[in-house]
Amino acid sequence: MHQRTARPLDPASDAAIAASVTPLPIGEVAAKLAIPAEALYRYGPHKGKLSLDFIADLEDRPRGRLVLVTAINPTPAGEGKTTTTIGLGDALSRAGMKAAVCLREPSLGPVFGAKGGATGGGRAQIIPMQDINLHFTGDIHAITAAHNLLSALIDNHIHWGNALDLDARRIAWRRVMDLNDRALRQVTIGLGGPANGFPREDGFDITVASEVMAILCLADGLEDLEARLSRMVIGQTRGRRMVRAAELEGIGAMVALLRDAFQPNLVQTMEGTPAFVHGGPFANIAHGCNSVMATRSALALADVVVTEAGFGADLGAEKFLDIKCRQAGLAPSAAVVVATVRALKMHGGVPLKGLGAPDVAAVTRGCENLKRHVENLTKFGLPVAVALNHFTGDTPEEVAAVAEALAGLGVGVHVCRHWANGSSGAEDLARAVMELVERPSTFRFLYPEDMPLAQKIETVARQIYRAERVDFSSAATARLKEFEAAGFGALPVCMAKTQYSFTADPAARNAPTGHVLPVREVRLSAGAGFVVALAGDIMTMPGLPSVPAARDIFVMPDGFIAGLS
Amino acid sequence: MHQRTARPLDPASDAAIAASVTPLPIGEVAAKLAIPAEALYRYGPHKGKLSLDFIADLEDRPRGRLVLVTAINPTPAGEGKTTTTIGLGDALSRAGMKAAVCLREPSLGPVFGAKGGATGGGRAQIIPMQDINLHFTGDIHAITAAHNLLSALIDNHIHWGNALDLDARRIAWRRVMDLNDRALRQVTIGLGGPANGFPREDGFDITVASEVMAILCLADGLEDLEARLSRMVIGQTRGRRMVRAAELEGIGAMVALLRDAFQPNLVQTMEGTPAFVHGGPFANIAHGCNSVMATRSALALADVVVTEAGFGADLGAEKFLDIKCRQAGLAPSAAVVVATVRALKMHGGVPLKGLGAPDVAAVTRGCENLKRHVENLTKFGLPVAVALNHFTGDTPEEVAAVAEALAGLGVGVHVCRHWANGSSGAEDLARAVMELVERPSTFRFLYPEDMPLAQKIETVARQIYRAERVDFSSAATARLKEFEAAGFGALPVCMAKTQYSFTADPAARNAPTGHVLPVREVRLSAGAGFVVALAGDIMTMPGLPSVPAARDIFVMPDGFIAGLS
């Protein structure tokens, strides 16, 4: 039964590679950005949080250039968006820029499930990767506690007399847990008699799907955090009045639980580039980017900041730009679209098992997916570079086919080898990005705030997904009108759609046209400040696979945690 | 809706008093115990964890004297066990001893519920109290995650084919959450169709009731931690075979989640005495003391260590001595029993509302409760001192009545004013304790390991509770025999009984005799290493009161968290 002493460390594993470098003391990392010692709250020698006072003092500083790393629609072949963000950040540092990267923090669900952690891989990792992939500085646990405190207050309120006349059938506020646990998706609670409250249906989402997470990532200060939490709609009364979270009288306690978690975390890449790793909202029912606090701080401290958005550019980049940049007043200077020959081949019709054989024609076909994402980004006024992450099996002809396919768009294709080589593998990409960010900004949003909600959804569907039209359910249409009547018409929309396709059908790879986007349900995230449009079944609590990653994680006799990736 | 800027800080609150002192840098606190800088993993300027390597190196050091602080049966009048532990530690430091205190870490449940935090009060507090009362160093969150990972693995195992043939009706492993949330006590999970697993009954305990918490507090090293987690019994197969946690193949991941949490935390009292605050198991279905790792480390580093046990001495001290000291090889040198005139009056029959009026006769009557606890402790061979925490309304005659009542036992009664005055208020108690710990040890356990389980329960009931007999349910008798047949006969017993009385009836105050202790159910905690005997209804998930403490907690504009106590 004792696994601990029995297994050796795999020297090719991400954990072993990460451990092969000696991290800089976090104070030295902070010094690269002129962060003074007293502004850094340390969690051990290699992690820190920036004080809110220090961040407030950055307000009037000039801001650096912001580079967004996004990707083609993901496939099982893998793209390497996080490694590209890290590799590009390191390559910019190597080129003499004062650079920083901004990333999301990992959830324990994928760490123990199928996907693994979120700290990059190979020579392009953020460290200490064991800490970051497990509890890190406790931010996600704090969000779990704050979210579930509100849940407990809701049922407690009903138990003690329900003065607000909450309709137990219309409580929208579920509970959360930072694990993949399918058995909690749908539950009944309050069973067992009067002492245990009133029975009702409920369910658990994974913590990163909590609106509290989205709010933590969009608020620009403690006061805004509190105001957004207060505004959240947790359900309705019997008379169908929307009930705000503040009515449960626990917002102060929630802010207290979130105070430390709200401070951006500072760590480093394997090459010592400062890395802000803070927040990680779901990329479907939320906007999928690291916190505004981290990005704004990084921009005030560095000349160039590389960040990533969730999923492919159709979802992640669009939401980064239309939600996060809009709310935070950010104007990115360039975008990098990540692709691989293997993934492009899959978009070109090659199955996963067939990826071993060279297939130039399939690459060329699959480039339609890449080209559409590039075109979409130019609709936001962003200059674009393509990062082609190199795999050993890629042939020169296949690589050439990508450059050729994109020639007409005036976009450079940069072969990247940061996974194997670190910063030296992303030098070409870094040079291109340094040139792009010097161009005068022409950044613009896809739609204006004052456009009606349904029309915003249609704009994203037509302009980005290239859908022929949107098919709203009658319930969705009615709810959108309700939201507008209640004063939420100026919010941006947050599209919840499969990440695997431009359409709502995960099997429709590459660049489909003529499709219809079904919007069966819309939800209000009044605190986060967006209206979620659900196109298809969206899972907010993943399950574990039959062989979970947890099985291969173990602690070695010296305390080293092996098996994380 | 915005509470944050609206409320002033109450200068008489524990939070304000704690904030009135400037804490020492944690490195200076560590230096008092000759803990080198490299052995301390820092969480900000005022909290740290001791490295496991350093602790391993302490193994051969001579050990200091261990003093247990315990109490009469608690009443709504309050006793002040934690403040006495802190005040005594400070007074011993003031007297020139190299002293440390060992305490449990607070759970968020009581912090937001009715009881408040667990960091003492007045001038006898551990700091930084805001941090300790909220997430501290994340230990309890880590336990929640490790516990619930195992829960998810169990349902995942059933979902993917149930190769172990787990009987879903006999899963003993519930889920946990570190909040008071009565609606989660009894739930049904896995609803909603095949994708969500098999529906079954389940429930949530508060995290501090998790066997993982008990194990974290009893294990003496990482290897022991892993072995204990592996041994836990999580349920039965259809063929009634006990299934061990290790069979779910997630122990390595659980240890990885617990690695940092397993390191003892170091903080300080308001007077700068080193305080180890680590672990906090429930005091009914578990043993209710801080971790063995913390106590053993403190004893290797300090000349005298003051620690406390949960509830009154009948439950807390007995389990501290028969479970923790037995498993960890500890031999305490003295015990302090805490009482107040007000609480003794309640044991003497005065209701809470009548406590304002002096009543010497009631005090004398109530001293029967105190005397019995003192006598019980001498059965363990421990020299005893009584700490009488002074309230402003106590009359000299009432105080004198306590001394008089105890005169026959040869035990000193020491009036304490550390709540109001800090260490100077506990000087008399400290002098007495310094004398007691110099006596040659006559410490012994109440019962030997090789006594049959039922007889161990009877021994505690007769010797400590003064019950006439134990009434075992037939199920309990059968299960005890089952445990013995399975090789668990040598385990100590962990009594789960109301803390308010020597009997199983919470209303039976003072010193009842002739009662029968009903043991309706017994449970095996195979990893923690004890057999739990349940006498009466034991709540493992508290509920929130109608006006939860959460309502009064808020963050001030400068980030100060007010409303904690």
Automatic annotation (TrEMBL), chains A, B:
It catalyses: (6S)-5,6,7,8-tetrahydrofolate + formate + ATP = (6R)-10-formyltetrahydrofolate + ADP + phosphate. InterPro entries: Formate_THF_ligase, Formate_THF_ligase_CS, P-loop_NTPase. It comes from the Bacteria. Its EC number is 6.3.4.3. One of its GO terms (biological process) is tetrahydrofolate interconversion. It is an enzyme of class 6 (ligase). One of its GO terms (molecular function) is formate-tetrahydrofolate ligase activity. ATP binds at residues 75-82. NCBIfam families: PRK13505.1 (NF010030). Belongs to the formate--tetrahydrofolate ligase family. This is Formate--tetrahydrofolate ligase.
